[in-house]
Amino acid sequence: MPTRYVLKIPCPISGCSGQSKLSQWVCARDNGTMYVDEDGYLSCYSNNHRAKIIYWRFDCGERGSGSKHNYERYQSADLEGFSHAMAIGLPHLKEAGAVWVTKLIQSVENQFVNGDY
Ligand SMILES: [Zn+2]
Ligand SMILES: [Zn+2]
Predict the structure, then answer these.
(1) Domain range for residue 41?
(2) How many angstroms separate the alpha carbon of residue 84 from the centre of ligand 2?
(3) Quick check: is 103 in a domain?
(4) What is the DSSP letter of 105?
(5) Distance from the CA of 28 to the center of ligand 1, in angstroms?
(6) Residue 47 belongs to a domain
(7) From CA 114, how far away is CA 68, in angstroms rounded?
(8) Given pLDDT bands bounded at 50, 70 and 90, which one contains residue 117?
(9) Residue 27: pLDDT over 70
(10) Residue 84: inside a domain, yes or no?
(11) What phi-psi label fits residue 64: left (phi over 0), alpha (psi between -120 and 50 degrees) or beta?
(12) How many domains does the chain have?
């Protein structure tokens, strides 16, 4: 079983003003806190909604000229955006450890480069 930790990252959408501030994320379906595991899946508290990162869409709540969510609220992350978000968020995840972090980074890269398998 993968180990999951609370997802605490800035907005993973490239170019969004929310990229500069750390956020906690909730599931749009049931408002549950979002978690991330080393296999590259996001899941909400209930675990009823769990999917690879490439399938999730994100809304950091920022609005206005710097926001990427003004026309379409929920946006898919790309590798650059999600890597940037992880670079800021992962140092705050001290309990995860280097092995977990390395595996997550590999899983995420694999998803964006190779798609879903
Ligand atoms: Zn959910
Ligand atoms: Zn955003």
Answers:
(1) 4-62+73-114
(2) 13
(3) yes
(4) H
(5) 7
(6) yes
(7) 26
(8) low
(9) yes
(10) yes
(11) left
(12) 1
Q: Which ligand is nearest to the CA of 12?
A: 2
What does DSSP say about strands 34-37 and 57-58: parallel, antiparallel, or unpaired? unpaired
Per-residue DSSP letter, 33? B
Q: Which ligand is nearest to the CA of 45?
A: 1
Per-residue model confidence (pLDDT) at position 116? 64
Give tens-digit pLDDT for 89-103: 999 888 999 999 999
59-79 pLDDT per residue, tens: 999 999 999 999 999 999 999
Provide mean pLDDT across the span 30-42: 98
Å from CA of 26 to ligand 1 middle: 8
**Gyration radius from the chain CA atoms:** 13
- Is residue 11 a part of any domain in this protein? yes
Q: How far is the CA of 44 from the centre of ligand 2 (A)?
A: 19
75 alpha carbon – ligand 2 mean position (Å): 8
